[in-house]
Amino acid sequence: MSSLLLSLETSSPICSVALHHLETGRLLGQTELRLDKSHSSHLSVLMEQLLANTLHSLADVAAVAVSDGPGSYTGLRIGAAAAKGLCYALDVPLLAVGTLPALARQVAGRTARPEQYQYCPMLDARRMEVYAALYRADGAEVLPPAPLLLDETTLTEQMAAQPVLFFGSGAAKFQPLMTGQPNAFFLAGIEPSAVAVGELALEAYQRQEFRDVAYYEPFYLKEVYTTTSKK
User: Which pLDDT band holds residue 223 (cuts at 50, 70, 90)?
Assistant: First the structure.
């Protein structure tokens, strides 16, 4: 009987896959590859290896979850195509989990006294712009995902109310602007993970928050940046 949730995270340079048991929520295994621009050639291999290493097959997969974005346009497209292909082939439901709430889930889950902080995942979005959102420890959304231009006044109102933990690929360029701000705390090395995607997808599965496989598109937040050839 199919009982597994297969989760894909491709919104960043890290290609990550996780496997959870749908009924118990137990993490059965995870694997990731930290190699930029490798998703298209390695995602299927990572899935096959994870299933084999946990003594399972695609026939055991009852649902597929994918990181919804924002993030790398190409990475999100690859993840969405793979997830939709699996759902079509296996005739299983599709779940999509926001990259930013999944990042916040990761950090809140490993923070001592998590209720003391607000959580602000930041993804680099060129120059002094980031994709960011603000969450409470229980995952409640304080500020929805949005593109933010960083300066010395960014989120100061929110920091005045409660200390904020900043993390993700965009947080490093915000940190120098917050020198002397007592309620700004920064965590390095926090990257998107399919494990957190799976944790949130398990909850969405119980609520039956499934996506339409035919029409699903990732949440890019902004139009993709393109340039015109000068030839």
Answer: low
Pairing mode of beta strands 118-124, 164-167: parallel
Distance between CA 17 and CA 223 in Å, rounded?
26
> What is the per-residue DSSP string for 98-142?
-HHHHHHHHHHHTSSSGGG-EEEEEEE-STTEEEEEEE-TTS-EE
For residue range 75-104, list pLDDT tens digits in order: 999 999 999 999 999 999 999 999 999 999
Inter-CA distances, 116 with 163, 174, 227, Å:
7, 21, 44
Contact assessment for residue 167 and residue 123, using Cβ atoms and an 8 Å cutoff: no
Phi-psi category of residue 209: left, alpha or beta, with phi > 0 → left and psi -120 to 50 → alpha: beta
Name residue 60's amino acid: D
* 83 in Cβ contact with 94 (< 8 Å): yes
Q: Say which residues have a Cβ less than 8 Å from residue 49's Cβ, sequence separation at least 6.
A: 31
Q: For residues 39 and 77, what is the distance between their CA atoms, to the nearest angstrom?
A: 10
Cis-peptide into 192, omega within 30 deg: no
Residues above pLDDT 90, as percent of the chain: 88
Q: Return d(Cα 154, Cα 170) in angstroms, integer.
A: 13
pLDDT in tens, 165-204: 999 999 999 999 999 899 999 999 999 999 999 999 999 9
